[in-house]
From TrEMBL:
Coiled coil: none
Broad class of the protein's primary localization: membrane
Signal sequence, renumbered to the chain: 1-21
Spans traversing the lipid bilayer: 342-360, 404-428
One GO BP: detection of stimulus involved in sensory perception
Lineage of the organism: Eukaryota, Metazoa, Ecdysozoa, Arthropoda, Crustacea
Protein name: Glutamate receptor
Membrane topology reported for the UniProt record: Multi-pass membrane protein
Highest taxon in the source lineage: Eukaryota
Length: 566
């Protein structure tokens, strides 16, 4: 029984123009092919059975005969669904009118009715954004199931089934397609029987239980420690190592595939969208030269618009490496044992004590009347561990002197102890640890420009601290040497992905004293990117999620980092 929500959605979609049924005589042909009753019966039992809890979208081939459409509509009567009729002329415009993410919902099953005149060009035009999770093709003509299921227009669909009438008895037959099988890619699931196909998984079996030894071509830049790096010094060797390579090895053993890596990209760009196209590793995947890329890429909406992203396997951002500030000069040790606030408090106490003692001396019964200067010298002498030339005779002055001597003794001992410590151990100013502290300082930042999004993002950021760093950013277009030299000079912070930054600075440039700010720029989820509408991405997602939950990714992170740092 359809829920009121589904019925309401269907009614609203009809009024909004989402439903588009072609009924003009110029587009509907006469009945030129047989239409088996068993197919209609299968359709009804399919909707009332395994598709009962799913929402349905129906497509009619524009060349489908009028009476065939009517018979199908009679079977669909009373079922909540959306009907669309597409032609090569209106396909792109029709898609632009709607939220394409709705088409990919796992709760929506797409059903296509075609005959011998079907043109897959329609779905080729929709392929980038139209990619259903569940798709059923009702073949009402005599086209081969092989030709239909192997059509490139349907290559991005995750689960697909074809239903047609058997030639010998007219019974409804079910087929699906296993693209990675070396032979017999078309699998016969059996004749339709409601008892055999009770669940959605019975109609749509997993098409990617194994990759059957397929060799994936991976776009990599093997200078991305600890994620993907070259274990050989030879420029011709692409035997990679690293966290992501270990993940590929584990997935390959589980799902039976091999892979090849690239040493670097042809244009030496990482992967960004410039001048209307993708470059670097992402460009190789976008142009379908490679199947996927596994290097350090964070999850962004801009990339997800043109690529399929796997589940995240790690969280990391861009680290800022800096040299620690130089130690405080020795001559500053004289006043550094106390903070500025303590020095201000001591001075204030000294002034008040002097004024108070002068008042006691003037109003008391002391035998010696001291001037204000004498009182100032007396109180000051105590702070330097010098005795008074004469002791007070008035009782009130004696009490005051006792408390003053105690204060001076505590202050002197505290100062002396701290002074010894500061003279023995070098004193360093507080290290910068946050982006805000860096923005408020006089430091600049530098970065090697290899095509990452960070420079542009900093300059256009709404965060004042990020925007300040963008204004102080000095990009280097040659090599890392120039950028790291600026950092080692103590004038700049060096921006690079956190893990790689740490290894690069400490191992390659031997800046052992350098440190990374505790706060990272643009921390985010790391993922792999595949071609848009990759049908088998769920198989990779399942495997990657298992590696993360099993703790293997963190284990490899520790092992690969220790491999370099010891």
């Amino acid at each position: 029984m359809a829920s009121p929500r589904i019925l309401f959605i269907c009614i609203m979609l009809t009024f909004l123009g989402f439903v588009h049924i072609k009924t003009s005589a110029g587009n509907i042909k006469s009945d030129t092919s047989s239409f088996d009753y068993d197919i209609l019966k299968t359709l009804k039992e399919l909707i009332d059975g395994p598709l009962e809890s799913s929402e349905i979208m129906v497509y009619f081939d524009e060349y489908l005969a009028n009476n065939q459409v009517n018979k199908v509509l009679l079977q669909l009567q009373g079922s909540p669904l959306v009907i669309a009729s597409l032609t090569p002329d209106n396909a792109e415009d029709w898609l632009d009118m709607h939220n394409t993410e709705n088409f990919k919902s796992t709760n929506l099953v797409h059903i296509l009715f075609i005959d011998d005149n079907f043109q897959s060009l329609i779905f080729e035009q929709l392929n980038q954004d139209w990619n259903p999770a569940y798709f059923i093709v009702f073949n009402l003509g005599n086209k081969s199931a092989n030709l239909l299921l192997e059509d490139p227009s349907f290559s991005g669909i995750k689960r697909i089934a074809l239903i047609q009438a058997a030639k010998y008895d007219g019974k409804a037959e079910l087929f699906t397609y296993f693209p990675f099988k070396p032979e017999n890619k078309i699998k016969y699931l059996g004749n339709w029987d409601p008892d055999d196909f009770q669940a959605l998984d019975d109609v749509f079996p997993d098409r990617f239980p194994s990759f059957e030894g397929f060799e994936f071509e991976i776009a990599t830049w093997l200078d991305d420690r600890p994620y993907a790096f070259n274990i050989s010094s030879s420029e011709m060797n692409t035997d990679g190592d690293g966290i992501c390579v270990e993940m590929l090895n584990a997935l390959g053993k589980t799902y039976n595939f091999t892979f090849t890596l690239t040493l670097h990209t042809p244009n030496c760009q990482w992967g960004s969208f410039e001048n209307g196209s993708w470059n670097g590793m992402l460009g190789m995947v976008y142009r379908k030269e490679k199947h996927l890329t596994i290097n350090y890429f964070s999850l962004t909406n801009e990339r997800r618009a043109d690529f399929d992203s796997t589940v995240p396997y790690h969280i990391e951002g861009f680290g800022i490496a800096m040299m620690p500030p130089p130690p405080i000069p020795k001559w500053r040790s004289a006043y550094y044992p106390f903070t500025y606030d303590v020095w201000a408090a001591i001075l204030t106490t000294l002034i008040l004590a002097t004024i108070f003692y002068v008042m006691l001396n003037k109003t008391g019964s002391s035998r010696f009347t001291a001037s204000s200067w004498d009182v100032w010298v007396f109180t000051l002498r105590s702070l330097f561990n010098n005795s008074w030339p004469r002791l007070p005779t008035d009782e009130a002055e004696k009490v005051f002197a006792g408390f003053w001597f105690l204060f001076c003794m505590i202050t002197t001992y505290a100062y002396t102890a701290n002074l010894v410590a500061f003279l023995t151990v070098p004193v360093f100013p507080k290290r910068i640890q946050t982006v805000e502290e860096l923005a408020l300082s006089d430091y600049r930042v530098t970065m090697f420009d290899y095509g990452e999004f960070v420079p542009e993002a900093l300059m256009s950021s709404h965060d004042p601290s990020y925007r300040t760093l963008g204004e102080r950013l000095d990009l280097v277009n040659t090599e890392y040497d120039e950028a790291v030299d600026l950092m080692k000079a103590g004038t700049h912070g060096f921006i690079e992905s956190a893990s790689y930054n740490r290894l690069l600075v400490k191992i390659d440039y031997e800046a052992e004293d350098s440190y990374l700010l505790k706060e990272e720029l643009y921390p985010g989820y790391l993922c792999w990117y595949m071609q848009k509408n990759t049908a088998y991405i769920d198989r990779f997602n399942t495997g990657i999620q298992g590696l993360v939950e099993g703790g293997l990714v963190l284990h490899w992170m520790k092992m690969k980092t220790e491999y370099f740092l010891g």
